[in-house]
Amino acid sequence: MGCLAAALAGASPASAAPPTPISERPTSTPPPAFIGAPATSQPLSLEEAPPPPRHPFMAPNDRSNIHDDAFQTDTADTQGPLGRDMETLSTQEFADCASVTFDSQGRIETICVGVDRPTLKLFDPRTLEELASMPLPPRNPGTGSIFNDFASGGYFYLDHLDRAVVPTTARHLLVIGQTSGPGFAVERDHDLTAVVPDGDKLFAVMPDWSGRLWVVTTQGRVVTIDPNRGELRVRALEEEIANSFAVDETGGVYIVTAAALYRFDAGAQGEPEVTWREVYRNSGISKPGQVNAGSGTTPTLMGRSYVAITDNADPMNVVVYRRAARVSGPRTVCTHPVFDKGASATDNSLIGTARSLVVENNYGYTGPTATVGGSTEPGVQRVDLSPDHPGGCRTVWRSQERSPTVVPKLSLHNGLVYVYTKDPDPNRDDPFYLTALDFRTGRTVYKRLAGRGLGFNNNYAPISLGPDGTAYVGTLGGLVLLRDRVAPARVTRPSLGFSPTPLTPRPNPRLALGLRGLRYPPGARPPRARPCARLSFNTAIAGPDRTLVRRTDYFFDTRTRPVVRTRSPLSPLRVVRRGLRFHRYYRIRALTTLADGRQASLVRYFRAC
């Protein structure tokens, strides 16, 4: 056991006691406790939102980490509050208990990040009584604002053995198990100080599908750790990292920096190897609502094929890529603008199903005081992959709710999107609400008051849906729960028995290759004669889907390598008559790639005359 682990080994069980509620701002005119009407469960079908695979080295989906699963979908395959006779409860911790996980007994295991240090805690999920506690290494002084420093244990995960795997400020990665007290004990201490220098910070950790540990740092180092031998491998990107990352069952590790989105895979010796890199649009501005001048989203994996982020353009775009190690044609599927120019930013992960994404607007959040009497720009938006739509994606709906900084969640069992809203309030009562939106329409279904004042500001913490349908929100004051007084019944998600329209085999592109400038031989006319190449001529891509074409490669005669790629996908190719043999037939093939990834091979023959 290392020196750091020895220093923490004395962590003891906490004496169970009723929690002290988070202090609320006094008011003479209390805001309404409930707005709207209770919901009826409208579960998503298994075809609309197939569940991500269970990671073999993590706790079950919906229990393992801040974003619910290894795909980082922020979807919960469980119930959430329906708005029926709701009740709230809170515990005052003077720390933000943001990342909420659930152990095999259903207890809450979380890290509460305070001004001086983070603390690993175990809570009763019904009463919020503290069951165990372990102080973690303190914050490093002089390392920026404490309100946007998430490198203090915010991105830990719970493994398949109920152990918290925690990156610490001391540049050690701790594997912390539970004891029978209940309590905590360090089982493994991985010292990364040899490969992560002083001044850099461990930011997030996830295991790949073989159990190898991956760690990213704020200064752009990617480290792999053999979990048995403790061997370290490192690759320095020299690009800032301010988000967690996703992993999939093919071995892919998807990391976004302030410059680009990467897929990594482990090399022969377990070293991190770049499989592909895609630069995204970036205004170079750290907008109010973001912690750096780059993408604000953890990569979200969609089904088996895609990975999505937001860029840092103005206005911001949702960008979807094909995530396979190798693809034919462009990797980008769509780049779709969201919210308004000069008022679009997010620093929270996307909700992702196989074909749909939900993004919220955080523009205007400059810190906790931004919500004192005020709020952020409005906007929660659903974007769907849509092969028949120009650009490959389309907006399904846009809500005007204001959700300053929450990681939103979607219950697949009831079809509600949960956000944490705060409207401008000139009286400065500053009520915060758990707000439920209809996933299919974007309509606000209900709003339930969580509490009033700064102590109920979540400051980038997520909503977490528990196994019994309770919603938990970490706040600057501690931890809040909101639930139906009678837990909603679990439902069986339907199977349509067939794939809905967005998932049906996509039709062949409606395209044709035209040859403009062919002429009839002297004295010859149809129907017996056909035009031929007497002079030079141009090609043309035609058809209803021509606006979706993103790349065109031309192949001449029988060549297997393209002879030319035009400057733009729809630019004509000029075929020069000189050099063509008289009366010989030639073939031109145009290989087109569309924005949604479909390809079409268009072939025309002509004769030189």
What does this structure look like?
The structure is a single chain. It is built from one helix and 41 strands. The protein is mainly beta. It folds into two domains: 3-21 and 40-484, 7 Propeller (Methylamine Dehydrogenase, Chain H), CATH 2.130.10.10; 507-607, Immunoglobulin-like, CATH 2.60.40. The strands form ten sheets. The protein has a six-stranded mixed sheet with strand order 1-31-30-29-28-2, with no helix packed on it. Strand 8 and strand 9 form a beta hairpin. The radius of gyration is 27 Å and the shape is elongated. Mean pLDDT is 90; it is low at 498-505.
Question: Nutshell version of this structure?
Answer:
This protein starts with a helix and ends with a strand.
List the topology elements.
Blueprint: H1 3-8, E1 34-36, E2 75-76, E3 86-92, E4 96-102, E5 108-113, E6 118-123, E7 130-135, E8 157-158, E9 164-167, E10 172-179, E11 183-191, E12 202-207, E13 213-217, E14 221-225, E15 232-236, E16 246-247, E17 253-256, E18 260-266, E19 272-279, E20 300-302, E21 306-310, E22 317-322, E23 332-337, E24 351-352, E25 356-360, E26 380-385, E27 393-399, E28 409-411, E29 416-421, E30 431-438, E31 444-452, E32 463-465, E33 471-475, E34 478-484, E35 512-516, E36 537-542, E37 549-556, E38 564-565, E39 574-575, E40 585-594, E41 599-607
Parallel strand pairs: 2-28
Antiparallel strand pairs: 1-31, 3-34, 4-5, 5-6, 6-7, 8-9, 9-10, 10-11, 12-13, 13-14, 14-15, 16-17, 17-18, 18-19, 20-21, 21-22, 22-23, 24-25, 25-26, 26-27, 28-29, 29-30, 30-31, 32-33, 33-34, 35-36, 36-39, 37-38, 37-40, 40-41
